[in-house]
Amino acid sequence: MFQATTYSDDRVKSYELLIKQLDALTDGEKDEVAILSNASALLNQFLTDVNWVGFYVWKDDELVLGPFQGLPACIRIGYGKGVCGTAVKEKQTQRIADVHQFPGHIACDSASQSEIVVPILINDQVYGVLDIDSPNKNRFDETDQTYLEKFVAVLEKHLQ
């Protein structure tokens, strides 16, 4: 339904529609699990060439597995550990073309080749991360990063 294409204008329009759908889907909802569950399902439906889409939530000084789409995953990730923990430590998106070249990569799914992790910040405090894995190297580009960061901004608004 929302398959991204190779044409950059179409991808941008598709991402903009996706973000509008997330905003409408989460409007008025206060339950965090419901919001994150629908967000992961929406992304999983929209994105091509991904094998895991989900969230980790910051609890008791570590990331804890939240709603996701994909194979079973690591349940807890420490601060600064792997791509997700690094995104928390640096409070910056991590776009990794080849996870096997990332020092300290945590391999929850051996099929994953590339990854993007966007931190979720509420009032400049880490709430958690959006984590997306792909079985293809170099899957995520600047367009993905820009629009996934906008997607997370909508989530941040609804999670406050």
TrEMBL record:
Domain of life: Bacteria
Organism: Oceanobacillus polygoni
The protein, known as: GAF domain-containing protein
SUPFAM superfamilies: GAF domain-like (SSF55781)
Family under the similarity heading: Belongs to the free Met sulfoxide reductase family.
GO CC annotation: cytosol
GAF domain location: 31-160
Pfam families: GAF_2
Record-linked Gene3D superfamilies: 3.30.450.40
Molecular-function GO terms, alphabetical: L-methionine-(R)-S-oxide reductase activity
InterPro entries, sorted: FRMsr_CS, GAF, GAF-like_dom_sf, Phosphatase_reg/MetRdx
